[in-house]
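Q: Hi! First time doing this. I have a protein sequence and I read that you can turn it into a structure. Is that right? Here it is:
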Amino acid sequence: MSNGVIVGEIAEDINNSDNMQQSEEDSDEGGPYDEDSDEAFMEDFRVNRDCFDILLKRLQKYERKDAALSKAIPLDRRIAIAMYTLGSMGNYNILSFLFGMSESMVGEILLHFCCDVCRILGPEFLPKALITPAKVHKCTQGFLNLYGFPQCFGAIDGRHFAIKPCAADAANYRNQKGWCSIIVLALVDHRSRFMYLNVGSPGRFDDSEAFEKSSLKKLMQRNPILKYNAKRIAGVDVPVVLIGDSAFKFSKILMKPYSVRQYAKDKDKKGFNDVLCKSGKVADIAFTQLRARFPRLDYGVENGVDQAKTIICACCILHNFLNYHESEIPKAWIENAMCPIPYRIQPESAVGRNSNSYSEHIRKAIATDIKRKKNMNTGK
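A: Yes, that's right. Below is the predicted 3D structure, encoded as structure tokens:
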């Protein structure tokens, strides 16, 4: 494996950086990974060389300056350490040994890197302006063209990620499976990119509770752009909606599948469920790819709860960044992410309650439209 070579060279470079007598020739040498194979580079740093170089260039102006008695660790080394840490499931004490630095320094480098990612890449790859006319049009057309679901703005889902809170807070964050977590509630577009994140609800809650308390629900209820983009479908004014699984409360802003009892004898309802589930898989894909790229999230972030939120947000932004640059994910990573860690089994959410009759009119209209289009495609 390349780990010993690459990490060892990074550690050696860091130790050398503490010596102010280091020659300029040494400091101008290439990175610790220059002679490594592309496959090993990808395995160690979770990105290909091209994306690493783009990331380095984007963060370049935030290079740390030398202190009075020591040279700052070069930016490419800091990024390499942070990306290696996100791709590792080893404890910080193990990584500190590999890198030749203290555990606190490992956590500090990771946190600084993630703060820079949020500050520099966040505005472009996870902008705060969630609902705009252009984005609404692009997303609704994307879901319609790719999956056949009309008026869908995005798929919503939640996932528990492991954290290590202080003993006094552990009970608040312990989920029903017995491990401490925070919920990441995400809205995902038709390309499996994150559009909205709500990070930090304690693990004792479920996805639906996180959504009910989120700013996303308020935006969906109040934003006039969504009502303006309503369309007449099967005699009903259908607004722009979200889609989710049975854990969420059914409402006029959030469509979810019919229950087994509801669709057992109704092919239209089953057809609706099939299309909704196919569309909703974009959220599963996004979370699977996120965890495949950054196994650290499954193992647990050791920086504390507040810092863990920043690190998780940065990973989601990096996911969008890498998705945009079409960075491939090795099949083995996906397979590993799809095999749950025995002590990190996801908590189950209760089935959300249904809402008023108008919500059902909207769902029935969409189901009718899906059936009509299916009949047109099959020539019936």
